[in-house]
Amino acid sequence: MKHDPRHPSPIRTRVTRDVLWLVVGLIFVLATAIVMATLWHMYQDARIDSQRIVKTLLTKPSTQLGRLLTLNDRVSDPSVWVYQNHRLIAHSPNTASIYPGPSYSGLVWLPTLQLQSSYVFSSRQYVVRWPLRTDWALLQWLGAAVACLVGISALAALRISSWITTRVLYPIHDMVTHVNNLLSSERIQPIPEPLGGDEFTELAALFNQLLVRLEAHRQKNLAMVGDSAHHLRTPLAVIRGNLDALRHWDVLDPSVRDDCLEAIDRTLSDMTRMTDDLLTLDEALGKVIPPMIPVDLRDVVHELWEDGQALIHAYGHGRLTWSERPSVASVVWAHKDYLRRALWIVIDNAIKYGTHEEEAVSIQIASRSEEESSIIVRDNGPGIPPEELPQITSRFYRASNVRHLSGNGLGLSIAVALMNTQNGSLEVESSGAGTSVTLSLRAVRLQSDP
Amino acid sequence: MPTALVVEDDLRIARVVGMELARSGWTMMHVAHGMKAVQESEPPSIFDAMVLDLMLPDIDGLVVCRAIRERSADVPILILSARNTVQDRVAGLEAGADDYLVKPFASVELAARLRAITRRAHPEPTADDWIEVGAVRLSRFRHEVRVANVVVGLTRREFSLLEYFLSNEGLTLTRAMILERVWGWGFQGTPSIVDVYVGYLRNKIPGPDSGISLETVRGVGYVLRSDLS
User: Nearest-CA distance from A265 to chain B in Å?
Assistant: First the structure.
């Protein structure tokens, strides 16, 4: 059946209609079967009774027939004719006015319903009409009873199905009301979950989860816009202030002037960096999956290893160790630029935040399952406060114990987005004794496709 | 005086570009439309380089770039764009541009890049692939560096960095240019590693022996100079 989405047929109507058809149909079939069985039984009875009468008349001389027929004063009062050589030789007293066709067997409707049977034995023909008046009355009663039953059960089916659907569907009705309220108020809040722990409770719970997730997403995006604007305001203020100093101070010491210019320059670099990072993040969060090729994690670590040493040199603290285990499967599906950037962010963070003097940052390649291989970067730094761990990958978030260090708080979110877009993941674990970041990607197995 | 065609619809950007070009000794021709740029670049063109914005009012900058390359005009093209994804960059270079600079940019960056793409006199590798500056010889194929004929061991990055410097002798290279060329995408956040690597190179290839020096250009980057020149 075709459904018009603008006029949905309510479940209630549908269920009621279906139940009605089902019940009426079932009862109709049953009643038909009963009536048929009854008819068959009556037919057999009438035939057997007719035969019994005929048997009493067989071999009797024609002179006795009239008497015998008159004796037939049964309640059922059958009409009997006996022919010999197509000549009527005897008939029962109740047949005076009716003259049957001689050889017809079957139902006769006039004047009342009768079953006519015709038997031929040694030159005699016996025609018996067995009256079915009482049977007919019984059938009529039966028919009426069936009709009543169908009617009553149809009504009952209507009432019961409507009662059941109402009872079953009232949580949906509630939910629809609540969602309508949500829509009209344009405020996102969970709908009350129906009691009973049934499928509707589950559905409502799922619906609420979805709402909460979407709402969190929306809030995050809103916060993102706000945060971005906020994070641009501070550098703008720095530029404004320095520019005003350059313009309005009557006497400006050359060193102060240089400081101002330097400050403006540095601030602009930070802003440029931040907008670059935001755009990179935007790109990585996009739905486009980058083209991926098999990449050996060892090569990537090798490449960044040297740069990591240089970075340690630049920061003036830290140490880098790499425990290389040749047995680990290390070829993964990756976009090399994305992987390199993500790993570089993680290494940079580990050296910047995780080392003070000679503490080591260790890099390790591991494979947790056949499906994926990972690079684990572990530092022995102060760690991330546990209550801040969930937010650590959010945009602009910077752990409270490292806020004095430079950075814009976008690095890790970019790394996460870059890993996710390659069908990989980035996980952060941290304790007071250091932080470990695991970058995982899907392993390349022989004869597997990306 | 060399002339640069600046294709840019934003007059404020065009003005800044013009100022920097004038300071570095260029004459500027300015057009605001892509079609005009294509017409102007019909040979014989009178300019030596093109600074091309990607978001133009009439046609896309990439289309301009391709059109010019299809007419086999080999004018050096520097794309100046606000778009900065890996794909944008790749698309720009594939369209035939010589370099890609993202707004906002430092004026010194613009000048350095223009100079780099317009300079024809790259030291030609000798027949067996040696680049030679001062007493330093570098072979790409053999991945080998010799100073006064003594082999110096360099790591992969050090080698690439030295190769980039040697090929651009006398040109100021900014940290961003070096990062892009030697390190690739993803290292913009840590320009300080360039300084560290330049330090490594200075240690491994000391000035007196090699006849070259890696000089710091304050606030900009580095330049490799040959003591002989």
Answer: 9
Query: Is pLDDT larger for residue A296 or for residue A407?
Result: A296
Going by the DSSP 8-state scheme, the letter that residue B182 receives in this structure is I
Dist CA B47 CA A438 (whole Å): 53
Residues 6 or more apart from A83 whose CB is under 8 A from it? A89, A102, A124, A125, A126, A127
Which of the listed CATH numbers 3.40.50.300, 3.40.50.12280, 3.30.365.10, 3.30.565.10 matches domain A293-442? 3.30.565.10
Q: Which of A279, A306, A340 sits opposite B157 (nearest CB)?
A: A306
Please say whether the dihedral angle defined by the alpha carbons of residues B166, B169, B173 and B177, taken in this order, is positive or negative.
Answer: negative
Neighbours of A318 (CB within 10 A): 24
Instruction: In whole angstroms, give the CA distance from residue A312 to residue A348.
Output: 9
As for the ipTM of the complex, it is: 0.83
> 10 Å Cβ neighbour count for A184?
8
Which of A272, A344, A411 has the CB atom closest to B187's CB atom? A344
Rounded Cα distance between A316 and A357, Å, is 8
Question: What are the angstrom distances between the C-alpha of A256 and each of A237, A248, A249, A268?
Answer: 18, 13, 11, 18
Q: Do A310 and B200 touch (CB under 8 A)?
A: yes
* Bridging pattern class, strands B136-139 and B144-147: antiparallel
The domain defined by A199-285 folds into Helix Hairpins (1.10.287)
| Nearest residue of A to residue B155, measured between CA atoms | A306
pLDDT of A293 > 60? The answer is: yes
At A2 the pLDDT is 46
How far apart CA A160 and CA A355 sit, in angstroms, is 74
Helices of type H across A186-296: 199-248, 254-285
What are the structural domain ranges in chain A? 1-187, 199-285, 293-442
Q: How far is A299 from chain B (nearest CA, A)?
A: 12
Q: What are phi and psi of A190, to 5 degrees?
A: -65, 145
Asked whether A54 and A119 are in contact (CB, 8 A), the reply is: yes
- Residue A383 DSSP symbol: -
In the chain, the amino acid numbered B35 is M
CB of B90 within 8 A of CB of B73? no
Q: Residue A277 carries which side chain, given as an amino acid letter?
A: D
The residue type at B224: L
| Contact between chains at B193 and A314 (C-beta distance less than 8 A) | yes
Write down all domains in chain B, each with its CATH number in brackets: 3-118 (3.40.50.2300), 130-226 (1.10.10.10)
Give the closest-approach CA distance of B192 to chain A in angstroms.
6
pLDDT bin (cut points 50, 70, 90) of residue A353 is confident
DSSP-based three-state secondary structure for B108: helix
A303–B156: do the CB atoms touch at under 8 Å?
yes
Q: How do beta strands B150-152 and B144-147 pair?
A: antiparallel
Residues of A in Cβ contact (< 8 Å) with B184: 337, 340
Touching check for A408 and chain B: CB below 8 Å?
A: no
Phi, psi of B136 (to 5 degrees): -100, 130
Please give the pLDDT value at position A54.
Answer: 84
pTM for this entry? 0.67
The 10s digit of each residue's pLDDT in A388-406 is 888 887 777 777 777 767 7
Give the largest CA-CA distance in chain A. 163
